[in-house]
């Protein structure tokens, strides 16, 4: 016998809940959030819902995933988790925590689980639904067991640039994506821009490791700066100089390359990750956030290299 309880289905006394994930930030961050929610929902065999309250409108942080053919149920007030209580006495906080725990156990409210800021949070994988996931979830470890299913779902559309695609696919060369993130990073201590020396060293390492002539396809939100400052000793192509590509089209082009030089950016992280070749070469900067070494975070897959 099935009986509905505030959107939760109970069968033989066991709650079959749901996973709600808050969507925020740009395309790369939204992909991390979706991938984590997808994997955790699949692990528990429950539906996934998206909380879209932070990505309304048409600005740079608009909701992007629907443009990739990703369709999930949208969460509503029943699927939101209340924020933790920070004001009041210790007794009131404990009382609030006890009520939240009871609502979660009864299946009438999801348990709120927050990531630890690029530090792997294993409790997100083991806490029973219903769940509300809040954070950026920037680690493959949340969804590596579902990598093949995710790559099959995330078939990003390519731009209408047949000559560019032909150059990337040229079997006589090795196409290398190189992402130069500047824009909102310039002048920010929190997100340092990767210096030209990083790109030159990574280009040299890739050229040393591959057997065919490398061609570097440079993607950037400041192609003029990249053109002036990245004079490489190898062939290079400045991608989308006219600004005609959508962001997910550039990401699709990145994923089509054989090797990758990423910035400290979730955008180029995904451009490299969506390349399904297990033997691909990926270089990342040794500093991801200002004053935070990349190796201190859980953001890089084990097979990727720092330089």
Describe this protein's structure.
- By secondary structure, this protein is an alpha/beta fold.
- It has two domains: 2-150; 159-306, Rossmann fold.
- The chain is 30% helix and 21% strand.
- It has helices spanning 27-44, 90-106, 123-126, 147-153, 162-168, 196-209, 223-229, 247-256, 266-273; strands at residues 2-5, 8-11, 14-16, 19-22, 48-51, 73-74, 111-114, 131-134, 173-180, 213-220, 235-238, 259-261, 281-284, 287-289, 292-293, 305-306.
- Strands 11-10-9-12-13-16 form a six-stranded parallel β-sheet, sandwiched between helices. The protein has a five-stranded parallel β-sheet with strand order 6-5-4-8-7.
- Strand 1 (2-5) and strand 2 (8-11) form a beta hairpin.
- Helix 1 crosses helix 9.
- The termini are far apart.
